[in-house]
Amino acid sequence: MTIDYNRAAFYYDDLQDLLKRLEAINTPNLSRIKKIMNRIQFCDITDPQQVARNLGNAYYRVDIKGEGHIFKNLQLDYTITNKKTGVSYGDFNFKKNEDGETSTTFKPRQFHGYGRFIADLIAKKVIYFNGYFRIVEDHTYTTIKNETALLHYYPVPNNRDHISDFLDVFQQIYAQFTDYNQPYTVHPYALSGRDFLMNFKTRDMRLNQYPTETDLFFQFYDVSYADLDFNRAKNYVEMVSANDKSLKNLLLLHAYIYMRMLDLVPPSKFFIMKDFGRTGKGLFIKSLEGFANIHRVEFDNLVNGSGIEKSNEWANFYGADVVHANETGAITPEQMRILRRIASGESVTGRYIGQNNFKFNISAPLVLDTNEIVDIGQITANRSRAVKIAFKDRPHDETEAERVAIFAPYWDFITSEKTKVIASLSFLANSLDQLDQDGGRFSFEDTPLPQYYDADDLTDTQKILLFEIHENGYIEANNPTLQMAILQDYGKLSTKRAQQDIKAIGVATNKAKWIDGKTVKVNTIKNKELFNIAYKLVSESMLATT
Fold first, then answer.
1. Which of 22, 339, 390, 51 is nearest to 173 (CA)?
2. What are the tens digits of pLDDT across the range 9-51?
3. In angstroms, how far is the first alpha carbon of the chain from the final one?
4. In terms of pTM, does the model score above 0.85?
5. What values do phi and psi take at 505, rounded to 5?
């Protein structure tokens, strides 16, 4: 019987070629991997009845050098191409009778991720490029960076089926695969729309770029350049930024997130966004959702949850592009320890329900969105890792209706299903432009964060320090009025709260100063920007009451 070579037959031959290449690899798991490969039976789907019943005709050879045969109507475990090709996973058994005729039976086996990965590799749904395997879908690819990533995309539920060097074996094969061909042109540092391309390696926007069927990008969006609204994205950032330094940091944030996703910059920064509520921080975070996978931290599960809940919550960090922590109350010591682990990119152990533990490093940048005073030193020992962003407080007399009306055009733009991707790409394009203006360096500004919303939030001690130092440049530490205020507000200056309050207004205490021929202990300015913010708050409050 002559068999026409069909898709299943081509895949079969490619699988046999891969098996030969496997023989050259030194691994203690050779027989286990060969068994998986030999159980992959490629099937052609030939008629509507098979489509409806999820069946296919498997191609196989009794003798590897002999004629091919068809085993009809096998139940499919996996569909490679809809209505055309699939995989049935199991063993063919061949038995000869007394007349020398061979009978064939098929025994199904439990299909899992390793088999699906190999099938996708043969079918070019996974390709090898620049040292990594990439999962192909439409115009995009997803990189399998390590064993953890492989099991994430190709789960192997039973621990006894895990093969420790499975990915390494195939990377060795394909690294030596000099005649390997794949049909795609890969653009590893770019995203694409219908008619434009953003290249993050060269930091430019290229227009009139129309992707072909064989072009692969890090991300592809069914959006035209004319759809983007750069002005509205820029206007929003300018509206919510408290100062020029915060504006600069906000403009750069989207590009930093995307460059982290591409591994073009190291995980060296985390972001603290600070205000006193209702200023648009949450909406700004949503402007990332069109291109980034945002994981919102569930502190309750990490602090108070059971072991299973904690492991599952840590597992949810895997694959995140941004970690968003939203805290409107005081940050507890337990929460601070968690934030430190996230911000520092520590190794954590996670476990999805019903699956095995796995370790990984948190590489997604942390964005802490808070109304509280934050001690950066408690989050990370390296203060230069923190990028601070102050949001502009809304006017005290602004009504809710007025605020809603002001934010409405931006809310619709950023959150609507029709425009959210357009919004995100508009913010991202502006960010890339800002990065290019800075010569490709993320030159984040060191900006003070607002500590107080209202002058009534300051103690008498703080107000005395602010007015006296503003007037004279310093105030003597033993000033009687100051000492009386300290006693009433804190009991003594060495308390933790007193030290935090003094630091919050940018004042340094007990500094030596030469006055009238002798050394005197004084309190003076330590952080001029913080001091000026606090002084402006109390002075404007005084003017408003006179």
1. 22
2. 999 999 999 999 999 999 999 999 999 999 999 999 999 999 9
3. 104
4. yes
5. -105, 10
